Amino acid sequence: MRMYDLIMKKRNGGVLSREEIDYMVAAYTAGKIPDYQMSAMMMAIYFRGMDPEETAALTMAMARSGDMMDLSAIEGVKVDKHSTGGVGDKTSIALTPMVAACGVKIAKMSGRGLGHTGGTIDKLESFAGFTTEISAGHFIRQVNEIGVSIMGQTADIAPADKKLYALRDVTATVDNMSLIASSIMSKKLASGADAIVLDVKTGSGAFMKSEQDAFALAREMVTLGNTAGKKTVAVVSDMDQPLGRAVGNALEVKEAVAALRGEGPEDFAKLCRTLGTYMLIVGGAAGDEEEAERKLDRVIADGSALRKLAAFVEAQGGDANAVYDTSLLPQADIVEDVGSLTEGYVAHIDCDEIGICSLLLGGGRETKESAIDLSVGLVLHKKVGDHVKAGETLATLHANDRARLEAAKERFLRAWHFSDTATAPQTLIKGVVSV
Question: What is the pTM of this model?
């Protein structure tokens, strides 16, 4: 089998067999196929596309390119959750203890952020001492004992995807539906969970800007998961403005803790409730949406979800006292309100721009080597549809450097658009894909 022949076959619109895809992925991972040939293949796929069988074969080949986590030692159904990412997306920090408190086992692998804000791991490290660098044995034991654990994705999980994504990133071949879906799902399938709930974002702060593309990606990933024998559901949710009000690592953790007290922003609470509902259903802890919602409401009301977060943080070396006293989380030296330059109704917020403001403050990574300042970020006081008077506070910025603050402030003000009449915000939950 020659890579040259496979490139030509795909370039001419042919369909690659499972054996051909297995060969290609294995040989590339082993360094036997050079980057320039795989770049040509990625470009051929970008223009010619892949059918469902090819996409499934690519996903499984990447999943099997490294270790496949064996979670059979964990009792019961193991559920994983994945978000395609956005601004202010701190969902896992509140959602996983909620679901675990309802009796569903959460065995999750997460990564660090690159770009606007930190990833789930960065945010959790706002708890002093918290680590996701735990052994597989610790991971399995903790899920059995506490019901939830989040560990860092190791280099041995889907290494083919890591190599391919780095290549796609520099060859303008990232935004192909089959390649996106196989990239996400290869890691999820290799992580060993029995069921997967996906949060697919759409809007100005999401990778998928249009609803049509978001639903197409959701259907593709659900099909891949179900084909692999994993019960998979996708929720398509709005990311046309930041989720909740906090953007920035420790600030988002504080908001997640507030949600577990029943005090979080309405949109964030609703998303957690919706995703949690489907996690309980696929995990076998609820027969329908009504039963699932009742259980989730109860663990918030009786405090067991908050206690579950504290137990999870403590089990992974973190300071659980900060769950009950969020003033112990990292705090910035400079806290400054930013007022509106005009009067009117908030018509639109450039979501990506708000994320970039957090990056400018030091809350995200411009390169993999960048150090994140966990204390910085911003808290919105206004969102789409709200009326604002000139000079009224739009947000509070948290910074440790005056120059960074001024740069972020200038960018922040350009992200807001106003109208003379009230604009209704986008519907938060766009739909659910289960087949």
Answer: 0.92
